[in-house]
Write a sequence for this structure.
């Protein structure tokens, strides 16, 4: 199924080495990857296996030590700060473990802030409605639960109509029940808008909702697996 | 404990930017304090030593003429310890290179080579005149310096129509002429006026005062009742045309010196107060921020059993370190500034040695006030650290909560973008901080304004008072009152375009038991060369009849418009008269009393006479007219006010420029300190938000807007506030420095205010841009790994 679609992102022999004083930490040791348009991908792997590092490079937050990242054929690996900022701004929607909402802005304003960055955004209310937050538009982050905050963060990513949603452990700080609601929101965005989505988790169960499950281990792709059937998050348990 | 001290230096290093910015502000305050106080101390010390060593008199009186025999009667008055009589007269000097005549104040020396018992002369160079050598003179140093005179030079002098060739044998000084200014003048002019000491017989002979005197100096016994001695001297000299005895307080030179010391003392209080308050505020903000980020450390230390005193002490030591850094820099800077400025004072005030010295107590008081500022700034923060419960401290500080604020509920946010709202909410959440920062920047503007005020005032005096008010080219003073017909002789001189008569009578004013020596100036109400102006530059006309009195004089006499005041002319009939104060004049200079000239005759019981004449002269003929006038026996002197003013202005402008440059730099330091600290703190408090926004695709420029939004608001509010503060500062300054010498107008000069605003804005923006470099170092990835 994935082969029939055009790859949006391609990684070619990516490596990333961090220098910690004298010590070299090899976070990525040669990753090759194709992410097809509209796919829902789950990245699995133990802690320290390089998932976040990979996602950051794919999202233009970091640059690889060697190898290439191609976004629709354009090389990002050598791009400067300015180009990567523009790339993040126009094409990528991020969701993080700790939400990173602006505490002094309400849900609606957090979304509107990002909507202003692109030419053809959704209405902030519409984006919040998609994640089931239509009733809490004027609440500040401190007045929302963790799951609610994460859904606002998803709405904030979605409002730009991004080509890519990159989510680093979006449920990591949430309990199972709230986590499911968040994942449903992500699935809905993927289905209704066709947004290519990559979700990092160290929770294998979540892989069952993906088109493709990529498992990393020690900075390499350990396996790629395409579930035959996509499960709805509401039936998952962890 | 060792570990805590290591932490101390680590914290200090971490805060180095804040520390330096704050220390600079402290340094400015201390430097201002040390410079002003040390000049004050140096001048006071130099003065006291000088006065004692050269036996400055306690009481002074001049008179028309009394026989030498009166001297012993003066010495017998109770309370009088020593008496010295002199003959003092003015002569015209022909100085090479000067087209206009120069006025020499001839002061007699005791006979037979005796040194003056009072107001002795410090001989800088040369020697004393030899007895019997009437041509030998000592010149005042300021005058000698102005013309480059030294021993062996000769000067042609006209004494009462008699030409004499002076020979300079010495250059000296006297405590009587620390400030060399001609009586009745407003500004010193060392080129056109100089004191000349010479043999008594030579002066007395020329002015027909042989065996007489016209000036008395008295030293009082320690037990003397001053007022009684003054009255006794006045009574004794009354028949000899006494002009009223005065104490040092009303002695010209002493008075100018005292006024200067007074204003130095005022500055020594005001400047450090402002700076140290700003520094206290900065310390407060920095410490609070530090404590916020170190809550957990504090909690851990407490949990480990480190005493609260050790922890409190740690933070206090950090403050102390910053304060001491500022103190040390301030002492050095202040010492250097004081020395430089002190040297400049030598131009104005002549002492045998203007020693620069400062008392060790100045270091102590500097230390005390800077530590006090440190305590004010951090006391509360340190207290909170000590009170913090370990259990509470170990939990991260509760995240800031935001609510819709009142402005928002009032619908005021409708127009704001989300970023605008972020700024507005954080300002509303911590209004105190914004208010203080705004106030700090506004203070900087105010200080700048004050810096240019002195300069503006000088400019104003020249432009307005002498450009529009006093427009005479020349002031001719007569030896004795002359009849108005004598003016005709002047009127027909070639080049003279206008002659206006004046009648000046020295008087004593009395109201209640307050007595003042001054003079009434009789003016032509239609005068075009002397137009009365108040200090705001508005023209005033003389009342039809009665007196017009300086507001300041009226205040000192506690009289109001419409009141009557006792007046005793110190010449002519010398009877007490009661005159009506018809109007007050809020003027800039002196203790003036004006009356229509037509009233002067009846007041004095005499036919109309004049004592001086103001002239408007065709510029091409000025020199010729001067010489023609000087040669007339009835003319005592020809003055050129405008030239004098220009000379003084050059000197004063140099001083003012130094002050305004110093204050300007200080103000910029405040602006830098406040803006740097507030931006740095905004950067560290917002680093998470800023990094998150960068991750979401905001550019560096866009997030700078967020960082500087608050600053922009502070600057925006600070401008009008700073203008108001600047205005209030000038108001306070003009009041604090008001004396009977000058009363300066409060001025709103667009250029100065504009300059102040621009300088402070530039300083602020520069330091903000410096902080902005920090945006490039934001850790985008790190911010994603941590919780709020
Ligand atoms: N900024 C960094 N500096 C040094 N080492 C890093 C940095 N970021 C990640 N690493 C290291 O790289 C490896 C992979 O990290 P990461 O991508 O965060 O793994 P994961 O997200 O799968 O847990 C780890 O060993 C981690 O310690
Ligand atoms: Mg990770």
């Amino acid at each position: 199924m994935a082969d029939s679609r055009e790859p949006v992102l391609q990684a070619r022999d990516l490596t990333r080495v961090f220098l910690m004083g004298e010590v070299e930490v090899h976070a990525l040791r040669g990753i090759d990857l194709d992410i097809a348009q509209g796919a829902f991908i789950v990245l699995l792997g133990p802690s320290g296996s390089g998932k976040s590092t990979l996602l950051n490079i794919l999202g233009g937050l970091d640059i690889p030590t060697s190898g290439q990242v191609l976004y629709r054929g354009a090389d990002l690996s050598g791009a400067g700060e300015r180009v990567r900022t523009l790339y993040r701004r126009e094409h990528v929607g991020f969701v993080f473990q700790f939400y990173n909402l602006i505490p002094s802005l309400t849900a609606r304003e957090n979304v509107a802030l990002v909507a202003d960055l692109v030419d053809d955004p959704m209405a902030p209310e519409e984006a919040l409605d998609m994640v089931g937050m239509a009733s809490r538009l004027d609440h500040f982050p401190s007045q929302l639960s963790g799951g609610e905050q994460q859904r606002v963060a998803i709405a904030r990513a979605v409002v730009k109509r991004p080509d890519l949603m990159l989510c680093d452990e979006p449920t990591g700080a949430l309990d199972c029940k709230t986590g499911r609601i968040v994942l449903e929101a992500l699935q809905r965005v993927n289905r209704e808008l066709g947004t290519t989505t990559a979700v990092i988790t160290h929770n294998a169960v979540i892989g069952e909702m993906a088109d493709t499950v990529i498992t990393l281990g020690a900075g390499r792709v350990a396996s790629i697996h395409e579930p035959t059937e996509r499960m709805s998050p509401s039936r998952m348990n962890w | 404990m060792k570990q805590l001290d290591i932490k101390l230096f680590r914290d200090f290093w971490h805060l180095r930017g804040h520390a330096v910015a704050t220390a600079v502000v402290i340094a400015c305050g201390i430097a201002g304090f040390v410079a002003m106080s040390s000049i004050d101390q140096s001048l006071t010390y130099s003065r006291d030593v000088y006065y004692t060593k050269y036996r400055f008199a306690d009481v002074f009186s001049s008179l028309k003429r009394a026989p030498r025999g009166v001297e012993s009667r003066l010495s017998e008055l109770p309370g009088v310890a020593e008496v010295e009589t002199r003959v003092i007269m003015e002569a015209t000097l022909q100085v090479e290179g000067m087209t206009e005549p120069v006025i020499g104040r001839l002061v007699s020396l005791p006979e037979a080579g005796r040194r003056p018992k009072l107001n002795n002369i410090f001989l800088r160079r040369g020697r004393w005149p030899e007895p019997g050598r009437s041509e030998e003179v000592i010149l005042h140093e300021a005058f000698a310096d102005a013309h480059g005179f030294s021993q062996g030079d000769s000067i042609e002098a006209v004494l009462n129509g008699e030409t004499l060739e002076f020979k300079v044998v010495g250059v000296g000084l006297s405590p009587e002429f620390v400030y060399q200014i001609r009586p009745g003048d407003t500004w010193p002019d060392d080129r056109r006026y100089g004191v000349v000491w010479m043999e008594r017989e030579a002066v007395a002979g020329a002015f027909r005062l042989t065996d007489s005197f016209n000036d008395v100096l008295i030293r009082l016994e320690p037990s003397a009742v001053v007022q009684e001695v003054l009255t006794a001297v006045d009574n004794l000299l009354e028949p000899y045309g006494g002009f009223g005895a005065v104490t040092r307080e009303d002695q010209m030179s002493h008075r100018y010196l005292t006024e200067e010391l007074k204003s130095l003392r005022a500055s020594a209080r005001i400047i450090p107060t402002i700076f140290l308050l700003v520094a206290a505020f900065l310390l407060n903000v920095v410490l609070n921020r530090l404590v916020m980020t170190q809550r957990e450390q504090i909690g851990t230390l407490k949990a480990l059993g480190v005493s609260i005193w050790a922890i409190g002490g740690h933070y206090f030591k950090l403050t102390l370190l910053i304060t001491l850094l500022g103190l040390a820099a301030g002492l050095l800077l202040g010492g250097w500034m004081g020395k430089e400025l002190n040297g400049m004072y030598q131009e104005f005030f002549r002492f045998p040695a203007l020693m620069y010295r400062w008392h060790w107590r100045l270091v102590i008081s500097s230390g005390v006030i800077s530590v006090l500022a440190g305590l004010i700034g951090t006391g509360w923060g340190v207290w909170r650290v000590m009170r913090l419960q370990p259990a509470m401290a170990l939990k991260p500080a509760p995240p800031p909560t935001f609510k819709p604020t009142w402005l928002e509920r009032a619908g005021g946010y409708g127009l704001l973008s989300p970023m605008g709202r972020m700024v507005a909410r954080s300002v509303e959440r911590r209004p105190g901080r914004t208010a203080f920062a705004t106030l700090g920047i506004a203070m900087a503007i105010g200080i700048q304004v004050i810096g240019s005020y002195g300069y503006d005032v000088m400019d104003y005096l020249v432009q307005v008072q002498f450009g529009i008010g006093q427009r005479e080219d020349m002031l001719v003073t007569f030896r004795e009152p002359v009849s108005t017909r004598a003016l005709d002789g002047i009127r027909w001189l070639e080049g003279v375009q206008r002659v206006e008569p004046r009648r000046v009578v020295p008087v004593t004013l009395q109201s209640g038991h307050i007595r003042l020596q001054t003079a009434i100036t009789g003016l032509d109400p239609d005068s075009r060369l002397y137009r009365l102006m108040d200090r705001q530059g508005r023209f005033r006309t003389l009342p039809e009849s009665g007196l017009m009195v300086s507001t300041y004089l009226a205040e000192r006499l506690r009289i109001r418009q419409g009141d009557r005041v006792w007046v005793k002319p110190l010449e002519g009939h010398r009877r007490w008269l009661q005159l009506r104060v018809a109007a007050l004049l809020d003027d800039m200079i002196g203790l003036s009393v004006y009356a229509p000239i037509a009233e002067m005759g009846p007041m004095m019981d005499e036919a109309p006479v004049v004592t001086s004449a103001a002239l408007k002269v065709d510029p091409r003929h000025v020199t010729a007219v001067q010489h023609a006038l000087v040669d007339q026996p009835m003319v005592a002197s020809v003055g050129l006010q405008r030239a004098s003013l220009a000379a003084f202005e050059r000197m004063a402008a140099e001083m003012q420029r130094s002050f305004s440059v110093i204050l300007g730099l200080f103000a910029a330091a405040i602006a830098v300190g406040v803006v740097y600290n507030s931006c740095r703190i905004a950067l560290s408090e917002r680093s998470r938000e800023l990094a998150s926004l960068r991750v979401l695709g905001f550019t560096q420029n866009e997030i700078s807007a967020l960082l500087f939004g608050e600053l922009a608001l502070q600057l925006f509010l600070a401008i009008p506030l700073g203008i108001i503060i600047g205005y209030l500062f000038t108001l306070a300054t003009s009041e604090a420095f008001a004396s009977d010498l000058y009363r300066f107008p409060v001025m709103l000069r667009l250029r100065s205010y504009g300059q102040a605003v621009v300088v402070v804005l530039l300083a602020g923006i520069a330091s903000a841009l410096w902080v902005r470099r920090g945006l490039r170092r934001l850790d985008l990835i790190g911010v994603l790994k941590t919780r709020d």
